[in-house]
Amino acid sequence: MESAIAGRRRTATRHSAEDQALDQIAKEAEARLAARRQARAEAREIRMRELEKQQKEAEENADRVYDMCTADVNRTMRVTPDPVRTSRLLTNSNNFQSSRRSSEDSLEDAGLSRDIRLELKEFEEKFRKAMIANAQLDNEKSSYAYQVDLLKDKLEELEETTAQLRRELREKNRDVEQLKRVSQRLKEDLDFCRAQLYDRDELIKENGLVIVEYVSDDDYENTENGPCQPRRVLVSTEAAELLETAGKGSLDVRLRKFASEKKELQDEIRHLRLELEETRSRVRSERSSGSVLGCLSDNDDIQREANKLLADYKFKLQKAEQDMSTLQATVARLESQVIRYKSAAEASEKAEDELKVEKRKLQREVRETQGRVEELETANSHLQRRLDKLKNAKSALLKEL
């Protein structure tokens, strides 16, 4: 039993060391995770600054290209009318004779220039809209790229969290299995103790002994601090019957009662012996002083009565001495058995209390571990659903891009 208790203590010490190591590993993992998150946040900020810078550069380049295109178109508009004018002057010089025809040509040239200007304005408006749409598309592309990066970071964080939760789940499962093994071992120890108690009871019955409960004077004095538990003593059937005849009370009280009865019997025996000696002396004096004929019958009667009384006293004395010797042997045997069984009972009670405390502790730890496992399974399923949603969102974004 002591070796089993020592083994359990060593197991508990080993469990505490393993728990400390696991806590240290968990703290280091959390520190690494926090450092990774901080590094990701810094990288995200740097990426945001780069994206904003690229967006500003793209807008400036778009404005610059737009200005260059509008300047080229204006130069083209300023340069193109010169050949028209020259051709018109030539036609006017060649056709100087016809004024009507020249007026018609001037009207056609004015209408053509207006059409060209309208088309130029339309092209400029379309180009401006196209540049604006291109800038918007670039902005949307940058925002989508940023969202994709964010989703990638979240996905990595969720994968790390899921991996950590899975590790914790495996550790908790190992702890649960270990606690189950410890509980099974405690059950086996309990069954072994019960079998030993059953064997003890069978041996007591075979030897014709009886277990008697008693409370000592020290236990009566300690009842003020709490309820006292009666102790047990293994005695023979005759001793148990004698103790039952002594009445109720502690074993010390009953033994004192037997001792007082013994003392009273001894006093009574001494008193009877004194009376017997007085009777004998009186008979001798009467026999010597009285006549032979007159006192013969009286002496015979007195002698018979004295012999009878002496026989009774001798019988009572022998019986009292026999009872006294029996009681002394019983008291000695009871005291030795009390000492032996008291130590055994204290050791058994102490071991039983330790086993009960350890069993309650293990049951509480098993319940807490089962609750933690259920929480981790729920969190794992929730994170798995979130991970599936993020994967679906990522695939949808990639399809749109």
From TrEMBL:
Region of interest (Disordered), ranges: 1-22, 81-108
TM ranges: none
Record flagged with keyword Zinc-finger: no
Keywords: Coiled coil
InterPro entries: LRRFIP1/2
Keyword Manganese part of the UniProt annotation: no
Listed GO biological process terms: regulation of DNA-templated transcription
Taxonomy, superkingdom: Eukaryota
Coiled coil location: 26-68, 120-196, 255-400
Similarity comment: Belongs to the LRRFIP family.
PANTHER family on file: LD07988P, LEUCINE RICH REPEAT IN FLII INTERACTING PROTEIN
Protein's UniProt name: Leucine-rich repeat flightless-interacting protein 2
Annotated source species: Harpegnathos saltator
